[in-house]
Design brief:
Shape: elongated
Number of strands: 17
Distance between the termini: 53 Å
Radius of gyration: 24 Å
Number of domains: 3
CATH superfamily of the largest domain: NAD(P)-binding Rossmann-like Domain
Order of helices and strands: EHHEEEHEHEHEHHHHEHEEEEHEHEEEHE
CATH topology of the largest domain: Rossmann fold
Structural class: alpha/beta
Oligomer: single chain
CATH architecture of the largest domain: 3-Layer(aba) Sandwich
Number of helices: 13
Length: 435
């Protein structure tokens, strides 16, 4: 018996999968009980340079040699993007092939369609590599924590942004300089928008929320905010208050009947927290279950071999399940037999602490007028720091930490403050206390 694999894409990750299957064939065979063989790989250009030299005859430009090929039991979609990846996956399922994918954007956007097609075809769709690279968070939520009601999860889900933030924090770099360094090191794409604007991490957060709570939130319903507005002085102020800044993904279920809160944005977190020490390109996820308590997972969130590790792990699991589990007992894709269509909580209802930085005119009465605006909107101030920018200017930096407040109240207060001619600029970063 042999399990034959077809790849859709032979780029960075696809080459890593080919390398693992070839170099670790004995290990995989020992764990599975029979060999895994890479049979075909779909590419756009047969002459393009490869990170791992393919076997003769492996590559093809004809998708029919992979999708629907009766000799291939498992199709690995590693192309990225929504199309033609979506079409290929649906056709593969219709043809009776199992699917492994690393495409978080596709699953977050068309997940319900793919789930329904997989159920109709009695085939598996595995996607461990779609979230946090080599970290086995999908299996942890689906299997290890299956007996738990998940109360919350939060984490650092994008290695590119975490690298940029780390460099800004530790080396006092501007966002532009840190991004340029990340691009030169190969951690950021030439067009980094999906990473730095938060969309990549948001897709991962949507999938994790579906696994945790049985609700697949729409990206349009989530609060998604990237790191492009962060400045070096914000990191300095954070350190002064005992915090570090991270691009934090958060989802929580306030009670069994309550709304699901899902948000992704820069956040100040206590410097002593486990997530505060996750630096560089590392990812981490903290999951709180009602029975398990806190579970902390950390590791490489991207890269050729970490991602390939998860893809090949899924291949082994699919190959094993294909042989020992009847189609009627096949486990559901996202860990739930049915997914709810609940609308997630509006960000305006979030109740958080806030860091606010203003550039204000240095004259008597300005601070009291700002405090008055906050008071009228039911916002209590915890700490206030005023620092001069330069002896040559009449403008100073005013930094405020608030007690917990409704996001709606805060935004209304900020809207009123923007009308004051004594305020020139303002920045907002949410503060996560993990209480």
């Amino acid at each position: 018996m042999i399990t034959n694999i077809g790849l859709l894409g032979y780029g960075h990750v696809g080459a890593g999968v080919a390398k693992l299957i070839k170099t670790e064939s004995e290990l995989l065979g020992d764990k599975l009980g029979w060999p895994i063989r890479l049979k075909k790989a779909l590419v756009r250009d047969l002459s393009a340079a490869r990170n791992f030299e393919p076997e003769p005859g492996l590559l093809t430009t004809n998708p029919d040699e992979v999708v629907g090929n009766p000799d291939i039991q498992v199709v690995c979609e590693l192309m990225g993007g929504l199309e033609p990846a979506r079409t290929y996956i649906l056709k593969a399922l219709e043809a009776g092939q199992h699917v492994v994918t690393a495409n978080k954007a596709l699953l977050a956007t068309h997940g319900m369609e793919i789930i329904n097609k997989a159920a109709e075809a009695n085939r598996d769709v595995m996607f461990e590599a779609a979230v946090a690279g080599a970290i086995p968070v999908i299996r942890t939520l689906k299997e290890g924590l299956a007996a738990n009601r998940i109360q919350s999860l939060c984490g650092i889900l994008n290695g590119t942004t975490n690298y940029i933030i780390t460099r800004m924090s530790q080396n006092n770099l501007s966002f532009e300089d840190a991004l340029r360094e990340a691009q030169e090191a190969g951690y950021a794409e030439a067009d980094p928008a999906a990473d730095v604007e938060g969309l990549d991490a948001a897709h991962k957060l949507a999938l994790l929320s579906a696994l945790a709570y049985g609700v697949l939130p729409k990206i349009s319903e989530m609060h998604v905010e990237g790191i492009t507005k962060l400045e070096p002085m914000d990191f300095a102020f954070a350190a002064e208050f005992g915090y570090v800044i991270k691009l934090l993904a958060v989802s929580s279920l306030h009670d069994a009947q309550g709304p699901l809160e899902v948000r992704l944005h820069p956040a100040m977190i206590p410097a002593g927290h486990l997530l505060a020490g996750v630096n560089g390109t590392m990812n981490a996820i903290m999951i709180k279950g009602h029975a398990s308590g806190d579970i902390f997972l950390s590791g490489r969130g991207a890269g050729m071999m970490p991602t390939a590790s998860s893809v090949v792990g899924d291949i082994v699991e699919v190959a094993r399940t294909h042989q020992i589990v009847s189609s009627s007992l096949r486990p559901p894709l996202l860990g739930w037999r049915t997914l709810k269509n609940d609308v997630v909580m509006c960000m305006n209802e979030a109740n958080l602490n806030y860091y606010l930085r203003f550039r204000v005119f240095d004259k008597p009465g300005v601070l009291s007028s700002i405090s008055g605006v906050f008071g009228r909107h039911n916002i209590s101030l915890a700490q206030v720091i005023q620092k001069s920018q330069s002896p040559k200017t009449d403008w100073v930096s005013l930094v405020v930490l608030t007690h917990k407040a409704k996001e709606r109240d805060l935004l209304e207060a900020l809207a009123e403050l923007k009308t004051m001619d004594t305020i020139d600029d303002m920045r907002l970063i949410r503060v996560e206390e993990f209480l």
